[in-house]
Amino acid sequence: MAAVTTMDALIQALQGQQRFGWSKGSFTPQATGAFHSMWLVAGEPGPGVAPGSLTPGVIPTDATAGAFPFTNATGDNYLGYVSATGLAVGTLVIFDRIWHNSTTNAATGAQAVTFPGLTRYTTGLGVECWLEWYTVSGAATASNCTVTYTDESGNAGATGTVVMPAVTKSAGQMFPMQFASGDSGIRALSAMNLTVTQTTGTWGLTLMKRLAEIPIRPSDQAASVLNAVDLGLPEIADDACLSMMFQGAVTANTLCGSFGIAKSL
């Protein structure tokens, strides 16, 4: 594969990029500053579904419902262009959804995960872990989730923590995991443990590789437009499951825009 390392190669990759229009219908974040996944939100592309598997979980691709289907480049794929606008001010995050699982057991107790292994970003460097709610929780109770994982250097038995405040968790709400000191990625997971029951609700862990962050301006202003240089030309793995989440105010929101996948030869 030929990486983009020169201006001529960049121009060539941008000329051959694949363009997508996208839109996501009405959703409301749980709280100001809360992260809200677009995975379950109707629009274009259509909504995804809960993985339905605690272990080994699911490795989604661009062919998975809810993802953007795209054609792999002969060489490498890059995020070359993004435009985005919405009704509420905030930040749109584009990421590769590289593994997820779910469970309907909202009670406390460790649950083992037989991890299948990463097929993208296999070293784990830069891979983040988030807790994602698929159906609303039944309790407005503070809770943590401890996650046992193997870090980006291959050290097993590390422990990360997801902190959740005393609010009812809405469908689509996401919470980031705090790494153990010194870690900067996840290569594998082995267990997850919700420390305080939320009574009911469907939730799971999502491993993701962040690709870009786009500011959403006030609705009376123009869309945010970022080119390849603004974005830093992030590489998109073959068959990536491109997904989005939004962080903003507690306001009914819709989002739309377009992006382009540049392709090297």
Plain-language structure description:
There is one protein chain. The chain has one domain (27-263). Helices cover 5% and strands 44% of the residues. Strands 1, 3, 4, 13, 14 and 16 form a 6-stranded antiparallel β-sheet that branches. It is globular and about 55 Å long. The protein has 265 residues and is mostly beta strands. The model has no long low-confidence stretch (mean pLDDT 93). The protein has helices spanning 7-15, 228-231, and strands spanning 18-27, 35-37, 43-44, 77-86, 90-100, 109-112, 127-133, 143-151, 158-164, 173-178, 186-194, 203-216, 224-227, 235-236, 242-248, 253-263.
Outline the secondary-structure elements.
Layout: H1 7-15, E1 18-27, E2 35-37, E3 43-44, E4 77-86, E5 90-100, E6 109-112, E7 127-133, E8 143-151, E9 158-164, E10 173-178, E11 186-194, E12 203-216, E13 224-227, H2 228-231, E14 235-236, E15 242-248, E16 253-263
Antiparallel strand pairs: 1-3, 1-16, 2-10, 2-15, 4-13, 4-14, 4-16, 5-12, 5-15, 6-11, 7-10, 7-12, 8-9, 8-11, 9-10
**Average pLDDT level:** 93
Note poorly predicted spans.
none
Q: What does the largest sheet look like? A: 6 strands, antiparallel
Cα-atom radius of gyration: 18 Å
Secondary structural class: mainly beta
Concise overview:
With 265 residues, the chain is mainly beta. Helix content is 5%, strand content 44%.
